[in-house]
Amino acid sequence: MINVGIIGTGWFSEVHAKILMEMEEVNLAAVCGTSLSKAIDFGEKFGGIKGYGNVEEMLEGERLDAVYLCVPPFAHGAIELQLIKRGIPFFVEKPVGTSMETPEIILSALKEKPVITSVGYHFRYRETAARLKHELEGAVLGMVTGQWMGSMPPVPWWRDLARSGGQLVEQTTHIIDILRYTAGEVEEVTAVFGSRVLEQIHKGVTVPDVGTVTLKMKSGPLAVISNTCILPEGDSKIGIDFYHSNGILQLDQEGLTKRENGIVTEWKDQDSPYVLEARAFIHAIRTGDVSGIKSDYFDACRTQEVAAAAVESARIGSSVRITDDF
Fold first, then answer.
1. Which CATH code for domain 123-270+304-321?
2. A single Pfam family, by name (predicted)?
3. Which class is domain 2-122+275-294?
């Protein structure tokens, strides 16, 4: 039996907890919140698992084989370093930070003392993502366009650039990641951000509410990724389109659509990518076989690096090249 702890008591923690509770080889042993009362309330939803208000107390009080981190971008750093020091594998929800500063510290610690890691880029686990990669084989990819168009999440930290990193880092990172997963690494980014609506109607908004990034891929294609968070709640358009020598491939929240020679073919995902990523991580903990993990901490940091470079590009008003330092 694999004993798992969860750090964080928000909605995403509940998503993962429900999946873990359904896995026969997993014992959801403990949860840690920003307060003991939040942890206790969370634990009661899942059979009375023990709650803690302090990470160190949970790690001292429980024999955990793995930990799930579901915390806001600004809360990363000390938690991961504690887990690495104790040799405890961890699954961490994206993004891995607000910038590259904290992830680089964690990367250094992982190089000194490796543990199994997985990052929640769940798009990679979609069956339609695998089909997308297959359909791109043998084709010449010319251009990619992606978008994350939606509304501003209601949590206060999200509207604070220093605590969330902004929409590109916090949400659109999924589009950047699936671009890397299918088209390879990014060489250079140029970004322009703006504030059109939200800072006039909400107090304390410091995140840009519109933005576009042009990405030059090492393999040759160009990509343009745009986002906005000014739409009314419930309205959204999220996806990524690939224009290649054989036609068009469109991946969105509904599935994958292929347009080739006037013929349209559609595929839908059959299994939850959240379940598939959990199975891959737990399998790795149980067996040591990490081949099923599609995004470990090192790989996720490359996606983070691209997003951080785009933020920097918008700040300085010029292109930023992506390094190969790790």
1. 3.30.360.10
2. GFO_IDH_MocA_C3
3. alpha beta
